[in-house]
Design brief:
alpha/beta; binds adenosine-5'-triphosphate; Rossmann fold; 4-stranded antiparallel β-sheet; 8 helices
């Protein structure tokens, strides 16, 4: 059974169509990177996958996403949206929100331990008592990732999670996503950094104009594809046995 399945999805806002006949299947254990230019429809697709929009053409573990209750879905999907407005809530309590699908009236010892472990994994345990509106952009990003991980989901959906992060933190977040997928779960990540995606993802889904125009492994990444998707010339070199995309500014 596919973890995620989208079949011929058309979706839009206020009568203007954004996603055109999008089909996608994701397996257990995959780390899928969704790439493409601004406005291509990546976030819109992810919101459909996350159940933010109830699209019956999206199936999660073989069942249409609109047939899940909010609580059921929260145990299966951890979603890290692109922009979150920080309020006064403290970091610890925000991450504890991720445990809500499991909690009774009060958090159990297991919930508290799960929050502590997640904060530690993202190296933000020292920020536990800080309110969100006093965090840096990168710290806030890590809190949002921690909240989604504390949900212990089967599927992790992250919309540009490495935005705002320094180089080391980018690698840490990608390693967490890689380990998540390697543990038999599934991660789908929207990214702009093609080279970072190349180092960590198994599969690359390129979108443009609301359509998926390429979907496959490393072999789909060619200079022709970058010309088509982004309108830029590039060269693909090899460093440490891995492909690296370099912009060709000479021609
Ligand atoms: N809530 C909304 N209401 C109306 N139009 C929207 C809404 N959200 C997105 N759009 C439009 O849908 C199109 C796709 O947007 P989307 O955010 O999915 O693109 P994206 O590929 O994630 O872009 P980016 O890389 O810039 O984040 C854009 O033209 C955008 O203006």
């Amino acid at each position: 059974m596919k973890v995620l399945k989208v079949k011929n999805l058309n979706f839009g806002y206020n009568g203007s169509q954004i996603l055109h006949n999008v089909s996608l299947e994701v397996e257990r254990g995959e780390l899928v990177a969704i790439l493409g230019p601004n406005g291509a429809g990546k976030s819109t697709l992810m919101k459909c996958l996350a159940g933010v929009f109830k699209c019956k053409r999206v199936e999660v573990f073989g069942k249409p996403i609109n047939e899940y209750s909010r609580e059921e879905l929260a145990k299966i999907i951890g979603y890290v949206p692109q922009a979150i407005v920080p309020g006064f809530m403290r970091v610890f309590d925000t991450v504890l929100l991720g445990r809500r699908p499991y909690m009774g009236l009060r958090p159990s010892k297991k919930d508290i331990e799960a929050v502590k472990a997640t904060l530690k994994m993202l190296k933000i345990d020292h920020l536990a008592m800080k309110p969100l509106n006093r965090l840096s952009g990168g710290e806030l990003q890590k809190v949002n990732i921690a909240r989604a991980l504390a949900q212990e989901p089967e599927i992790l959906l992250m919309d540009e999670p490495t935005n705002n992060l320094d180089l080391r933190s980018q690698v840490e977040v990608m390693k967490i996503a890689r380990e998540f997928a390697d543990s038999g779960k599934t991660a789908v990540i929207i990214m702009h950094d093609v080279n970072l995606a190349l180092r960590f993802a198994d599969r690359f889904v390129f979108m443009k104009g609301g359509k998926i125009i390429k979907d496959g492994g490393r072999d789909v990444l060619t200079p022709e594809l970058f010309e088509e998707v982004y309108g830029v010339r590039s060269v693909i070199a090899e460093v440490q046995g891995a492909p690296v995309v370099i912009l060709d500014l000479e021609s």
